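Appendix B. Raw example, untouched.
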Amino acid sequence: MKVEGGMGMKLMDKEVLNFILAHQEISLETVGQLLSKKEEEIRKMIERINSVLPGGSIQIQDNKILVSGAGIEESFDMLTLQEKSFLQEYEVELRRNLIMYRLLTHQDPSSLQQLSEQFFVSRNTAFTDIKKIKELFRHDPIQLSYSRKGGYQFKGPEMIIRNKLIQITRDLIKTVYGKTKMITFHLLSETDIHLMREKLEEIEHNIEIQLTDEQVNELPYILCAILARAKNHPIEWSFQMHRYDIRNTKEYPVIRDAFQDYPFLKEPDLIYLTLQILSSNMIESAFRLSDSDEISLAVDRFVDRLKSKLAIGFIKESDLKEKILLHIQPAIFRNLLGFQINNPLKTKFIKDHGFIYQVVSESAAPFENLIGHALSPEERVYLSMIVLGWMYQTKENAKSIFKAVVLCHNGTSISKLLLENLKEMFPDFEFIGAYSFRQFESRPIEVDFIFTTIPYKSKATTIVVPPFLEQESRQQLKKLVQKLLDLDTKKKAKGIVYAIKDFIPTDKMNLVEETVKTFFEGDRKNETGEESDASGLKLTEQNISILSYEISWEEVVDTIFAPLLERNAIEPCYLKAVKSAFYKHYQTMLIGPDVYLPHARPDEGVNYPDIQIVLFKKAVMFPNHRPVSLMVALAPSADNSHVLTLSKLNDIFLDSKALRQIKSAASPKQLLKIFERR
């Protein structure tokens, strides 16, 4: 969402204007780097600014931004004539973050007078800011203290102080004006940021990792903040990594050597820097821990729990485990050291896929036992995204007609998840890989299709897709790609020739392809097929039972699975497997509050996927002394399509109003209407 201030000027435009006024003849490239924008975007911002300025006095010459004397006055007027009610609140939060950044990174004493002079506010305003900052840290292990000699200083465990510094730095650089103010108030310099970005690119090359666009823009600021803290507060500190030693990885000595021109850095500083580069916002990492056997075991246990709770079997399970291992290793470091992570899809994912999120959260205990506390919602959502993406997997198809690539700037895990989903959706595409935009632009790769999360200009067919593909968007995307293939005579001819290539002499392939292309250009009659609706199991009245008589705990499984046996959906051996599992582990087979889901694996006797929802008018007393009025008998599908139905049912069962309506229903028809309304 874009927020506008007075006089029609956007906040991001004002940040550009601040840069222009703070520097003489700043280049388009520099402004673009500092604001993480392309040069073309900066040009458009300047056009908008000129449309608002009375004289339109900002010029671009030889890639340099120039402002006349009159233009400077006009610009300052535009920046001061804003909606005060919004900007005052906005600037107060920004200023307090800047004050905290200064206190955490600078060595010289910070008195009220010095703070008021540096940030152009009165002593009273500076004092109010200090009081508010103290309140923010009232319950934290670190405190803001004052002494005549040292002024205001943060004191507390160095690890927590540095983590807080990184959090504040992230808040600043993600805030409009934040980067501008950090430079204009001399809290850091453009030169330092530029040098740190070059150092990161060198590290990236030497240890063969792929930093995302977001990391390349964010990490230079974070690393500069850590260096300033280490240089200006040279205290003795350490942190223990009893289980995992980052020093024994191949990456640590490379990163250590890259920072050898900073002699004030001690080993804890270097380890901390290394962990930031490898883990702080890198969702998936290729680095290996010196002792990761227990992590691999935790991954095995996690996947086993998922299979039990979701009643599914994963295609290429070993590949899934490897993917989870790549994610969880840096995640363990982040959690052990208190690093925070951002997941822009967290709220939407939990809202749209609450059932999968709940199952993954309940299955994450093996990882949480390693770190000693619960995973954050952000970490759980990333795991859930990997799991949900893998549930769409089918058996690999060896055909590859077209070449394609995925471009995404959000993060490694998101782009790789998108890549895996697209591979499954388009088995006749050869996906070269998932890249950030800068990686793709740095190497000449010829492809037929580009799947990108933001608009991108290319000669190849470019399709903008959401970072996370849900069922509806997957169906729409398949239809769109098919339409594009039908309309593109060259690609259509290529596909047909590929299908019959075994019958065409190699030296005639190009000629045949061109002939077919010419044919289609003369006859554009296309036939399009509809996608099947993979919306899960279909519920009808026969899938619902309402029992008014008493049922004992011992006969409850036989009772609810009787309709599935009658419909020949399952074999007797499946019922036996369900009883064996459910009577031992019933407390883990839940699909809602006191709503149980007995099931076994599809390969244990399922003839076809089926489901039976059973309402007991006389509740069944379970061994945990809780009365149960609702159960779901499940015969799962081998392709995991039943999970969509379970997700919908879980949403309904979590709604207390809907659950009351279900329990008061008098007929299967009434119950079906409740489910159909959702």
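End of appendix B.
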